């Protein structure tokens, strides 16, 4: 059974320039994802899918494989991750399982990847998830006059502990059957199981402020 890791890493980034190779606590941020994949012992090949020669050379120097350059039609701002993983599977001649690993996931751990592989079993995907810090079913909305009201007014009088727990994509990884990627299935389907990540290791990195917060969290964990 062939199992591959696929790390998408485009050259373009609108909000954070050269985001996928920007230094994060002393290393290019993609180095953490590559190291976790290689150290996990799960994968026959760790592939970086990129359209950028500088990223390709860096990925190779870190021990990843770059067996192809990603085509232009899969490298714009609107392409989803599932087609990128499917392209990688086809480009190398097939696999049984594939794990999408985000390039900007410095909190990812090899043990997470090992446990997610075991958890996948015969499901389509095993997705890294994290719990929202606040109960989203008590969320508020604000009108043009800055007045607030409950989005779900029926929950106003309910205790937080009586509301369902809600989760979000932790943006670490998505382990899946290769055919689920090749068929273009939604990652959020009824055959996706959640692999919960401690929220102390979860930070979306979409803006310079997110980046600074993530570095502070990373240093704090290192000192814990």
Task: Describe it.
There is one protein chain. With 224 residues, the chain is of the alpha/beta class. The chain has one domain: Spore Coat Polysaccharide Biosynthesis Protein SpsA, Chain A, CATH 3.90.550.10. The chain is built from six helices and ten strands; from the N terminus they run E-E-E-H-E-H-H-E-H-E-E-E-E-H-E-H. Strands 4-1-5-9-6-10 form a six-stranded mixed β-sheet, sandwiched between helices. A two-stranded antiparallel ribbon has the order 2-3. A two-stranded antiparallel ribbon has the order 7-8. It is globular, with a radius of gyration of 19 Å. The model has no long low-confidence stretch (mean pLDDT 94).
Summarize the structure.
The protein is of the alpha/beta class and 224 residues long. The chain contains 6 helices and 10 strands.
Strand order across the largest sheet = 4-1-5-9-6-10
**Uncertain spans:** none
- What is the general shape? globular
Beta strands, count: 10
Secondary structural class: alpha/beta
- Element order, helices and strands? EEEHEHHEHEEEEHEH
Main pleated-sheet profile: 6 strands, mixed
- What is the CA-atom radius of gyration, in angstroms? 19 Å
